Amino acid sequence: MLDSLARLGRIGIGVLERLGRGHLLLLGMLRGVTDLLPRPGLLIKQIYSVGVLSILIISVSGLFVGMVLGLQGYYILSQFGAEQTLGVMVAASLVRELGPVVAALLFAGRAGSALTAEIGLMKATEQLSGLEMMAVDPVRRVLTPRFFAGFISMPLLAALFSALGVIGGYFVGVGLLGVDDGAFWAQMQAKIDLHEDVFNGAIKSVVFGLVCTWIALFQGFDAIPTSEGVSRATTRTVVHSSLAVLGLDFILTALMFGD
Amino acid sequence: MMESADNQEPLVRIRDLRFSRGNRVIFDGVDIDIPRGKVTAIMGPSGTGKTTLLKLIGGQLRPSSGTIHVDGQNIHRLGNRDLYKLRMRMGMLFQSGALLTDISVFENVAYPLNEHTDLPPSMIRKLVLLKLEAVGLRGARDLMPSELSGGMARRVALARAMVLDPMMIMYDEPFTGQDPISMGVLVELIRSLNDASRLSSIIVSHDVHETAAIADLIYVISNGKVIESGPPESMMDSKSAWTRQFMQGLADGPVPFHYPAAELADDLLEGAC
């Protein structure tokens, strides 16, 4: 009994320690922005590897998700003779929910896992220690540019996802199923609210970008410096990021749209 | 800073150093003086915490108790800014080389200069080429670290460690896994760089012959303590059976060849029943 209590206590202390280290790392990365401003090249390079290289998977996924929404939406709406509102349905689903959430899940899988593996391997091959001994702070020099790159890229990727999703929905709804072209866009224009829908969706994607990148970098930085340790850290990144995105999505949705 | 001007003062002074990892005691009251301008070797079997000692000297780890003074400054009492300032005068050669894998050899060596100086690119180029020339790899400047052999990677890392003209260089197992030619080149380089650049060198190693060939002073550590120290010649003929066994690589001595176990006959018979 006492043993299991002690074990529980140790696990609790371990979790709190990791949380503490994670928050200290976040603070260090935020402070590192002063080093980043005079050297925008570091940020641009990371935006390329974190953001630009994720464009393909985000674009293709967005297009297909939009096409599926168009199909499913059409069959349901047409039962009520409301297929003219397909544009609203597709756009609202994407901008409010699917854009930020699915883009964040894909971002965690594509860019987050790559970040964790990269930082974990830099740790395992003593590159981070090497930087410290060269009097270069690895948090400011290596982690901060990656953190802000993720933070900036994620909302843009979510916007791209939603935009291509709408095009996918249009292609299926108007192009294949015969929904009226004018009604598709006009209804969307009339019903989608800039603040209520677009702005709230953007806030979600900013939060998800911050959380996913933070988790990915912390897992890499805190990884046990062996091949098994890095592999576990990469898995943890995807699992923790996905759970965090889904949990936060519920909280944010409740705060934004709940009465 | 007053002490730094006093050349009689050892460059690194370690007193009553204690360090543990969990329940395992790594150092239990270690005293070491690293003199200026000399090559000092810290030797001992694998797992005695030699690399840990370098990390303690570099301020990357904190001791449980005891002090480490580097150039007169207690390294674990320094703030981040002063610690980084001191580290600019300390070079370290990691066992793996620890080169940044996404940039070329030239950029790796130029890295500390780009980070810490405002020198114009033409001056940085000259300095980098001179350091690469010193390690014989000027022609490899455009290669990526993945294209280098282990020995070449360590020489590039050595050029990088020297590029800010530090007062000391710490070598972590520089000879491990090297072929005889690379080994010979490294042994020669470490000694000649130490003398030509008036450095102080600390080599952590268990390669007895190579290290003894270039060291001025050897500390042998085991079980968390300094067993013996002195010039290489005296260590070979040491009165301590342990030191003799280690330095001469003898199978028989105070350190047993076999891990503690039951009698072989008993063990075998047990399986037969």
Automatic annotation (TrEMBL), chain A:
Transmembrane segments annotated in the record for this chain: 47-71, 147-178, 198-217, 238-257
Pfam families hit by this protein: MlaE (PF02405)
InterPro entries (alphabetical): ABC_MlaE_roteobac, MlaE_Permease, Permease_MalE
Keywords assigned by UniProt, alphabetized: Cell inner membrane, Cell membrane, Membrane, Transmembrane, Transmembrane helix, Transport
Keyword Transport found: yes
Chief location of this protein within or outside the cell: membrane
GO cellular component: ATP-binding cassette (ABC) transporter complex
Family listed: Belongs to the MlaE permease family.
UniProt function note: Part of the ABC transporter complex MlaFEDB, which is involved in a phospholipid transport pathway that maintains lipid asymmetry in the outer membrane by retrograde trafficking of phospholipids from the outer membrane to the inner membrane. Probably responsible for the translocation of the substrate across the membrane.
Quaternary assembly: The complex is composed of two ATP-binding proteins (MlaF), two transmembrane proteins (MlaE), two cytoplasmic solute-binding proteins (MlaB) and six periplasmic solute-binding proteins (MlaD).
Protein name, as recorded: Intermembrane phospholipid transport system permease protein MlaE
TrEMBL record, chain B:
Domain of life the protein comes from: Bacteria
Residue intervals of the ABC transporter domain: 12-248
Pfam families: ABC_tran (PF00005)
UniProt KW keywords: ATP-binding, Nucleotide-binding, Transport
Coiled-coil spans in chain: none
Name of the protein in question: ABC transporter ATP-binding protein
A molecular function GO annotation: ATP binding
Entry keyword annotation includes Transport: yes
Transport among keywords: yes
